[in-house]
Amino acid sequence: MATNVSLDHVSKRFGEVLAVDDFSLEVAEGELLVLLGPSGCGKTTTLRMIAGFTDASAGTVRIRERNVTHEPPYRRNIGVVFQNYALFPHLTVFENVAFGLRRRKASEAEIAERVERSLALVKLDSLAQRLPRQLSGGQQQRVAVARALVIEPDVLLLDEPLSNLDAKLRHDVRQEMRRLQQLLKITTILVTHDQDEAMSMGDRLVVINSGRIQQIGSPQELYRTPRNPFVASFIGQANFIEGAPSRNGSLFVTRSGLAIACASSASDAKSLMIRPEAIELLDAPAAGANVFPATVEVVTYLGSTSELILRLTDSETVIVTKPASAAAPHQWTPGQSLFIRVDPASAVGIASM
Amino acid sequence: MVRGTRPLERLGRATFQIAVAGAFVFMALPIALVLWLSFFNNEILSLPPEGYSLRWYSEMFRKRQFISGFWTSLDVALLATACGLLVTLPASFALTRSQFRGREAFLQLLMSPLIVPAIVIGASLYMTFVEFEVLTGLPVVGSVWGLAVGHILITIPWSIRLITANLIGVDRSVEEAAQSLGASPLVAALKVTLPLIWPGMVAAALFSFVISFGNLEISLLLVTPGQTTLPIAILQYLQWKIDPTIAAVSALQIAVIGGGLLITDRFVSLAKVVHQ
Fold it and tell me: Per-residue pLDDT tens for A329-340?
């Protein structure tokens, strides 16, 4: 597939701080790529360098094979949706959306037609004559999307576009934006700190921490085989048990001597990662691999799930989540003894950061 | 109405309201007094009034120096306001939208007319103008342009403060959005930033106009006989006579400035200007 945006060894230095440290990545045509990481990790700076608002200290930014590293934003043909939407408060919804077309000297007839089509796309055609302040947050967000899309940009850049919406609305808008993106097949780069948003919207995720790319991959890849503890704990919940792999790599021996069969383990693995939902609870010992006795320490009821903290040995505990079944509510009590079974396929040995 | 449940709270509110009322009286009293005096029949300004008449108003229109002074002041104030904004706008953009060496010094330079006594500015301008006239032969002292140059100097600090405050208030991402849509920085400034700082520009223009129209100290050294501003015409008249004509002239000046405020309010809500 053709490459739309590529970053080639891009860095950004603010004084002493290296905000973005040697990023190289490629975004395919029509792909939705998510830059995911905690605040201050460099994801927004990366987006701003692609948009041209911030100059790269080193490296090359290309959009559709064109080197735009030193091009100003107004010559890059990009669509940007800002976190606060950044609508023009003195212009109507229609004129907000028409702004980019007017800069491109489109004819009045063409402007009217394209703005109308674009507003219909985000279901705002009836509000074209309103001012931004007369709209709700969700409507403003859709105007911002329409304004960015109407110019048919090479790439759509979204900077935390859902963070100012309330939780209920965010869920709907997320699906709506994903639908729109797939409908228009527009290459999109989304910045977020919200892992649910990243998982549900992204074709591929770039996990970033302290200015460094930690891992790039599909949501499944990142969840199943995180490369380091940061990725493992940033995407979903994870148990880490310290220890070392056995010589042939099929077993992981924990500090207290438990030998756990695992799917894959790098020879330099320092800990074993097990997802909380990948641990099965048994009332009685069972035959087969990876069955260990455990004691319930804490039970937390969370509505749709229950979260248990189980002690395996004096030094090791694991967190287990179990869906709460209305038909057969299972009661666990602290102090209760039971057995756990770990699926070897979901136990992954990972190196430290 | 004094509301509040606890006596101390009520006392606090009452004190505050009295202080506010006092401030209003303090500000309105001189204006009211001038207007009142302008209708006195007395030959010499004094209390109590001997009777009321409108004759000082017709007197005022018969005195050429007041009429020509009024027009000169109006010309100078309009020119100083317009040129002042032309200087202040780009300067304010530079101060708020770019980082450059000597930015702080540049700001202090623009603020400096506030710390130099106006009469000193007037004197140094006068000497400069004389040198300039000797060199070029162009008349500057006593011209509307010469006066306007002096007035621009003292309006700049006020306009800079007002406009930079407005520019800082404009969300940078709105300008970035304009640029991402294909607007160069200049187009973004014209199409997006200027409409958003409009109230600040109106406020700056108003301030400049009022400061220039009422200025005495700088004008004092830059006028020539036959070409004076209204405040100087008043001062010169006062040296010979104290009759209610000057109260009538002041009433005219108040009417011009008050009228300006009212007209402006029709275009830009002054409440909005003040709140920015």
Answer: 567 888 888 899
Q: Does residue A232 sit within a domain?
A: no
Helix/strand/coil for B67: helix
Show the tokens assigned to B178.
């304009």
Helices and strands counted in chain B (H then E): 13, 0
Residue A14 lies in a domain: yes
Q: In A193-335, which ranges are continuous DSSP H helix?
A: 195-201, 219-224, 229-234
> Complex ipTM above 0.85?
no
Domain ranges (residues) in chain B: 63-275
Please, which residues bridge with residue B192 across strands? none
Which helix (H) or strand (E) segment holds residue A279: the answer is strand A279-282
Residues 6+ apart with CB under 8 A from A20: A10, A11, A12, A42, A45, A46, A49, A211
Tell me how far apart the alpha carbons of residues B136 and B130 are, in angstroms, rounded to a whole number.
10
CA B265 to each of CA A212, B101, B167: distance values in angstroms, whole numbers, following the listed order? 55, 39, 21
Which residue's structure tokens are 């405040």?
B231
Run of H or E residues at A244: strand A239-245
Residue-wise pLDDT tens digits, A113-128: 999 999 998 888 899 8
pTM summary value? 0.79
- Domain B63-275 belongs in CATH node 1.10.3720.10: yes
Q: Which residue shows structure tokens 């080193």?
A: A58
For A74, the closest of B171, B182, B192 (CB atoms) is B182
Residue B54 φ then ψ, to 5°: -105, 10
The string of pLDDT tens digits covering residues B222-238 is: 777 777 888 888 888 88
Give residue-wise pLDDT tens across range B144-194: 788 888 889 888 988 998 899 889 888 899 999 999 999 999 999 999 999
Query: Is residue A140 domain-shared with residue A277, that is, in the same domain?
Result: no
Which residue in this structure is represented by tokens 């700001």?
B107
**Closest in A53, A99, A103 to B176, CB measured:** A53
Which chain B residue is nearest to residue A153, measuring alpha carbons? B181
Indicate whether A229 belongs to any domain.
no
Name the H helices within chain B.
7-37, 55-62, 64-97, 103-111, 118-136, 144-169, 172-180, 185-188, 194-213, 217-222, 230-238, 245-267, 270-275
Structural domains counted in chain A: 2
Pick from B181, B184, B276 the residue to mutate for testing the A interface (most A CBs within 10 Å).
B181
Give domain status of residue A231, yes or no: no
